[in-house]
Design a protein that fits this description.
190 residues; alpha/beta; Rossmann fold; 5-stranded parallel sheet; 9 helices; 55% helix
């Protein structure tokens, strides 16, 4: 077991943070296709808290109360356990997509006890809203006003503080997906 932990500790551990529709899912899929083990934090939390079918981002843009009731530390320990339990013949690193608060980041750091590569994906709000309409997920905001409300909620309830306190490198997503993937790969290799 000690050898496995030592090997895990030598691999990059990437944290992706970004507002809605900034490219987190695409980057996560790209990294998974390149032998990174990854978890989408939002999906993981909704699954643990049983919010899959009835959670509406427009009516309830955050799940802070549910997370606090469940226990933030317990949730983060389960996330870490889940990511390290994923089996793959080749593992080039680990990635958690969708980090939303500095509290979660501090708990994560305590559990993994190593430096992470923190990447914040950024695009202009109007561009992200257009991408949101294109991807057309069931619970995505359908109006620009709802989109901005979700964004404000994410920023005011933790995303803004996370970016300021946790040394994130900002990667601008304003080109093609291939261009975004290249920027992320360069940052990981740095």
């Amino acid at each position: 077991m000690r050898g496995v932990i030592r090997i895990m500790n030598n691999l990059p551990f990437i944290i992706l943070a970004a507002p809605t529709c900034s490219g987190k899912t695409e980057v996560l899929c790209h990294l998974r296709n390149n032998n990174f083990v990854g978890i989408d934090m939002g999906s993981f939390i909704r699954k643990i808290l049983n919010l899959n079918s009835n959670f509406d981002k427009c009516k309830n843009p955050t799940i802070v109360e549910e997370i606090e009731a469940y226990g933030r530390e317990l949730l983060m320990s389960q996330l870490i356990e889940a990511i390290f339990s994923i089996k793959s013949p080749i593992i080039n690193g680990y990635v958690i997509s969708g980090m939303r608060s500095n509290d979660d980041m501090e708990i994560l750091q305590k559990y993994i006890n190593r430096k992470t590569i923190n990447i914040y994906l950024y695009s202009e709000a109007l561009q992200r809203y257009k991408w949101c309409l294109i991807r057309d997920r069931k619970n995505d905001p359908k109006s620009f006003l709802d989109f901005i409300r979700v964004e404000y909620s994410e920023i005011s309830l933790g995303l803004g503080e996370l970016i300021m306190k946790s040394e994130f490198e900002i990667i601008y997503n304003k080109g093609t997906l291939e261009n975004l993937f290249q920027k992320v790969e360069r940052r990981i290799r740095k």
